[in-house]
Amino acid sequence: MVNIFTLLKRLFRGRKNLKLGLYGPPNGGKTTLANKICVDWIGEEMGATSNIAHETREVQMKESVIIKSKGKELVFNLVDTPGIATKIDYEDFIKLGMKEKEAKTRAKEATKGVIDAIKWLDDMDAVVIVLDATKDPYSQVNITIIGNLEARKIPVLIVGNKIDLKKADLKKVQAAFPQYKVIGISAKMGKNMEDFYEALFEVTDK
Amino acid sequence: MSLTLQFIPYIEIEDLDSEKRITKLLKIVKANKIILLEGRLKGNEETELIRRTMEEIDDKFKGIELSVIFPDKKDEALFRKLKSMLIQALMGDRKGFTIIGPATIVKEIKQDPDKIQLFTEDLKIPRKKR
């Protein structure tokens, strides 16, 4: 339920830019998408990406991103969040070649990142859920986060990322969340970005 | 090594506030037991469970696997829907089941709308010496 504090905060936010959050499980491609949006519209990247999960361990924000489509203009602050997970094991990072101390630090920062991402949920005006279309979308974390956004009446757009890969199954993502608009993209290859930007206007009601 | 599955009827958590519910569930999971909870937590409690889990992760406790099986038949007749909404409002969210397991034991929970598959870590059973 949206509490009175949240409602007042939204009311007094006034003419400030809307906050567009990128949420989802680790390694779905949130930062790759954030980088693609930033390169397309402001000409610079937002953050580092990696194949190792939990590369983004702090909430990052790029202010006043302006996108244009069909004579319309959308101005927003883009918020890239750490991947939300229910488990983080430093030994997984060791298996990927990290030293124990580095792996433990990464795990600690990753847990803090998840906590911060959850804290920021209340501040969002619209959220893009970035899912890896090659993976099973029926994950409780995805369902819980989307359910929470729905309860807070925050508009949601679901993105099935990595559609350039053979294993991608966008229909499965659409079947998992039939009540939401699902757009298939490849943020890395820049595939279907026009449809994604058009959907952003729809979801933010612009 | 054996697996312990602890069934928690909804009545056991219904009078607890959100904080106490989560504390109770996390305490059981941290004792390496898999919880089969009747019904489900509220949406904000599920998020809070994830947040609290992150706070408690250390070298031994690696987190949880969580899954909810919740019958939500879209073709259900309106009268039935209203009836279950009324029961839910009066008695809490007793429909379905929630499974919460320690990540060190439950590797993955695969979820379909009507089916849950639990994948556990390989249990190492020592061979008897001959």
Shape of chain A: globular
Helix content of chain B: 25-40%
Helical segment tally of chain A?
A: 7
Summed over residues and divided by their number, the pLDDT of chain B gives a mean of: 81
What would CATH call the architecture of chain A?
3-Layer(aba) Sandwich
Regions of chain B with pLDDT < 50 over 5+ consecutive residues? none
SSE order of chain B, one letter for each helix or strand: EHEHEHEEE
Compute the number of helices of chain B.
3
Structure commentary:
The complex is a heterodimer of chains A (206) and B (130). By secondary structure, chain A is of the alpha/beta class. Chain A is built from seven helices and six strands, in the order H-E-H-E-E-H-H-E-H-E-H-E-H. Helices cover 38% and strands 20% of the residues of chain A. In chain A, strands 2-3-1-4-5-6 form a six-stranded mixed beta sheet, sandwiched between helices. The radius of gyration of chain A is 17 Å and the shape is globular. Chain B has one domain. Chain B has three helices and six strands, in the order βαβαβαβββ. Chain B has helices at 18-30, 43-56, 78-91, and strands at 5-8, 34-38, 64-69, 97-102, 106-112, 115-120. A four-stranded mixed beta sheet of chain B has the order 1-2-4-3, covered by helices on one side. Chain B has a two-stranded antiparallel ribbon with strand order 5-6. In chain B, helix 1 (18-30) crosses helix 2 (43-56). Chains A and B meet through helix 4 and helix 5 of A and helix 2, strand 3 and strand 5 of B.
